[in-house]
């Protein structure tokens, strides 16, 4: 299955504490978080295996971080994927919350 990741709509599902992309057929790509004060604690990112390697997780991470930035909040990237994405994209490094 091939799809253009950049054309996919990322929805902020606040009720489920996640950013998500509806891939059709009941399949979702998700970036899950917990919100504490003004910090999004990203805990898990997942794309169904049949959609792997198409840049969907990168698109999801970018949209989630752009949303956090627009809110003026910070992130705590516990999720290894989000952490690695931030490490590769210096423009999002100022969003990382200081940990005590």
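^ structure tokens above, recovered residues below v
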């Amino acid at each position: 299955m091939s799809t253009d990741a950049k054309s996919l709509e990322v929805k902020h599902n606040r009720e489920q504490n996640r950013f998500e992309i509806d891939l059709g057929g009941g399949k979702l790509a998700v970036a899950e978080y917990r919100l504490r004060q003004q910090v999004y604690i990203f805990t898990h990112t997942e794309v169904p295996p049949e959609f792997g390697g198409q840049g969907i997780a990168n698109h999801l991470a970018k949209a989630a971080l752009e949303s956090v930035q627009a809110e003026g909040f910070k992130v705590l990237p516990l999720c290894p994927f989000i952490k690695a994405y931030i490490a590769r994209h210096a423009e999002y490094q100022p969003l990382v919350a200081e940990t005590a």
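Residues 26 and 48 are 11 Å apart (CA to CA).
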